Amino acid sequence: MTTAILSALPEEQSSLVQHLAHPQRLMHAGRAFWLGDLHGRRVVLALSGIGKVAAATTATALIERFGVARIVFTGVAGGVGDGVQVGDVVVAQDYLQHDMDASPLFPRWEVPGYARSRLVCDVALSALLLGAATACVSSASGQFGLKSSAQGGSEAPLHRAHHGLIASGDRFVSSADECVRLRTTLHDAGHDVLAVEMEGAAVAQVCHDYGIPFAAARTISDRADDTAHVDFPLFVQTVASRYAEHMVLAFLQKLSN
Ligand code: SAH
């Protein structure tokens, strides 16, 4: 059984590539795919690309060309929910496309043809990933340069792993106004969103179509507000890449096949 590990950004993937035994790099659909073994498990590492279409293409290639049995996605995201802070991790329970709007033909956010707006992640895989994320954040408080780079404080912050709804769309949400609007509109319709990013919902839809189990964990790199673009690059380099590495390795150790 081959497990696909998808990363959104190269910084998140590079340490995993270094851990790969018997690495083999293959090009397909203009993308690089790394095949090999991680902790004795057969894996394919791939970059999703940025945005929903790029991520959907990568996910389809992983399934069609590489025959993967499951897809696990690590990346970064903007924290939108109450108490979802920089340095926390959100494991997706389900995904919604916040920029999907075929109203009045379909209800707002409903994916035409799917009769729903939210696509759920695999329960068992998500539970394993949540366990790995929880272990990672509790051992990470005060490590990985988090205090100095992202928080700036002298106290070691206590980080949390959350489990809930993540919204994806083809926008980097980087203003407090937009973030509040997005969160309030979704909340008023019963969608309590914890984080926002640009790829996960597309991968969830592809996995739904093929019947492939999917789970995703996103490290919070910013609060999707006016400082999001400032927080972002340093955080990815210093923290998110190490979180991704620790979570994926812990997750693979717990897999039963
Ligand atoms: N610096 C990168 C571009 C990053 S785009 C480059 O130059 O290539 C932002 C990435 O982080 C996307 O993969 C998205 O999923 C995630 N992300 C983090 N914070 C986000 C936010 N506030 N809004 C939307 N996506 C966010």
Which helices and strands occur, and which strands form pairs?
Layout lengths: L2 E5 L2 H10 L1 E8 L2 E8 L2 E7 L4 H13 L5 E10 L9 E9 L20 E3 L2 H18 L5 H6 L9 E8 L7 H13 L4 E5 L2 H11 L3 E9 L5 H27 L3
Parallel strand pairs: 1-4, 1-5, 5-10, 6-8, 8-9
Antiparallel strand pairs: 2-3, 3-4, 5-9, 6-7, 6-10
Helix pairs in contact: 1-7, 2-6, 3-7
Bound molecules: S-adenosyl-L-homocysteine (SAH).
The site of S-adenosyl-L-homocysteine has 18 residues, from β5, β9 and β10.
Describe the model.
The protein is an alpha/beta fold and 257 residues long. The chain has one domain (3-254): Nucleoside phosphorylase domain (Rossmann fold, 3-Layer(aba) Sandwich), CATH 3.40.50. Helices cover 38% and strands 28% of the residues. The chain contains seven helices and ten strands. α1 packs parallel to α7 (228-254), α2 packs parallel to α6 and α3 (123-140) packs across α7 (228-254). The longest helix is centred in the C-terminal third of the chain and has 27 residues, at 228-254. The protein binds S-adenosyl-L-homocysteine.
Second CATH tier, the architecture: 3-Layer(aba) Sandwich
At the first level of CATH, the class is Alpha Beta
User: What is the overall silhouette?
Assistant: globular
Q: Helix tally?
A: 7
- SS strand fraction: 25-35%
* Structural Rg: 17 Å
CATH topology: Rossmann fold
Can you give the helix content as a percent range?
Answer: 25-40%
Instruction: List cofactors, ions and other ligands.
Output: S-adenosyl-L-homocysteine
Low-confidence segments, given as residue ranges, are: 148-154
Q: What is the makeup of the main sheet?
A: 5 strands, mixed, barrel
Order of helices and strands: EHEEEHEEEHHEHEHEH
Structural class, from secondary structure content? alpha/beta
How many E strands? 10
Average pLDDT taken over every residue: 92
In CATH terms, the superfamily is Nucleoside phosphorylase domain
